[in-house]
């Protein structure tokens, strides 16, 4: 019989850790049965990834695989709301029309090579975000693609996207993971953020999130994914030639790590 040595090692380590926990916590049989009943519910509700998120394991595993880079832009988890085939946008790039509810936001920056500092012209960006009522399109039955899109930086690496400022939101909390958070006295909030992927041939693909200074949930993100270098100011500016309505500006430069 073929055996999977790696799996056997992992199961052995988990078993040892659980045995130690039973003793350390003086766990009763009833308590262990409650643990098993909870995990059964998590499986039935398809919430194991959400459980991994709120336990900080998704972020931990991601950081372990992609240790913080001294020079390139810090990465972050993709989260559950990414779709691979987001609409390809035409310039000038907009994720939202003029009548989209929410504060208009200009998201702009430059993509450069983290080692040489030179422009990464034509880098491909993907952005996806929640709407003003704190929902992603995939959470709205029948909505179709909304507030997500793909577009390219120009030859000098510059990009500019018109959208709205996303609000903070609560992760789904109507299932067993939400109940767990409530029982242990934790909230379900994530600070407002934009999700971003940036790629170009010859560079390591970046997946990350951009947060905004002053957000009340920055210090207690329920999935623990806020990193200081990804928190940027939102500047409020009046209508101008650049955009004929008052808007917020989020400037975020991206440094890509070349594949060596
Ligand atoms: C998000 O960033 O969109 C997200 C991440 C983890 C759980 C739920 C949502
Ligand atoms: Fe998100």
Short description:
23% of the residues lie in helices and 22% in strands. With 260 residues, it is of the alpha/beta class.
Average pLDDT, all residues: 96
- Number of beta strands: 12
Share of residues in strands: 15-25%
Distance between the termini: 41 Å
Biggest beta-sheet profile: 5 strands, mixed
Order of helices and strands: HHHHEEEEEHEEEEEEE
Task: Tell the overall outline.
Answer: globular
Number of helices: 5
Helix content: 10-25%
Structural class: alpha/beta
Give the low-pLDDT segments: none
Bound molecules: benzoic acid, fe (iii) ion
Radius of gyration: 21 Å
Question: Could you explain the architecture of this structure?
Answer:
- The chain has helices spanning 5-25, 29-44, 48-54, 57-65, 176-183; strands at residues 104-113, 124-128, 148-152, 158-164, 169-170, 189-190, 193-199, 206-212, 231-232, 235-237, 247-251, 254-256.
- With 260 residues, the chain is α/β, with parallel strands linked by helices.
- The strands form three sheets. Strands 1, 4, 10, 11 and 12 form a five-stranded mixed sheet that branches. A five-stranded mixed sheet has the order 3-2-7-8-9, with no helix packed on it. The chain has a two-stranded antiparallel ribbon with strand order 5-6.
- A hairpin with a 6-residue loop joins strand 7 (193-199) and strand 8.
- It is globular and about 70 Å long.
- The model has no long low-confidence stretch (mean pLDDT 96).
- The site of fe (iii) ion has 4 residues, from strand 7.
